[in-house]
Amino acid sequence: MNKVVTSKDELLEAAEQITYEEGMTHLSIRSLAKKLDISVGVVYNYFPSKADLVLAIIENFWKKVFHKDLCTFDEPPCFPIFYETIYQRLSEHIEDFQAVFLGQLHVLRSEDKQKGKALEQQYLQHIQKGFLLVLSQDSHIPESLWTATFTKEAFLQFLFEHMLVDLSHQRKNCQFTKEMLYRLLYAKST
Question: What is the Cα–Cα distance from 151 to 156, expressed in whole angstroms?
């Protein structure tokens, strides 16, 4: 007799397990139901299609990486340290994500790929908002640093693009960028 699934989280966890161990091509509504010894209908109640399931796994990935108290502080953090934290978290997880998901997205229809890209953009924008929050709360950065052309937003856009380039080259640490941030943001005005 089939057991009853207690949560969507249990389904996602099992789906992630299949995807990481066997690859996305082995993930299906039926394989997920079989793994959990539940009826296919139970899975369809949560995920009407494989595409919905894959998109939920991708969203769950981003949530795990970034929604762990990154913008909740007892006291405002030092911006370069915050940058390093984000960078390290991305660096640790992006390799698995690229290998498992990005290399196998051909199984999705183009409209579902677009949904996946939109979801990714949503999380990247969330990260950028977190950067702006931390940058604005760092009281050691003099407000006189910012001008009409050298704005916080333009600075962060540049920094974020640089971070993505470093990650795409699989650079494991960001010590040079962190040092650059210290020198630029905390330099004494003359």
Answer: 9
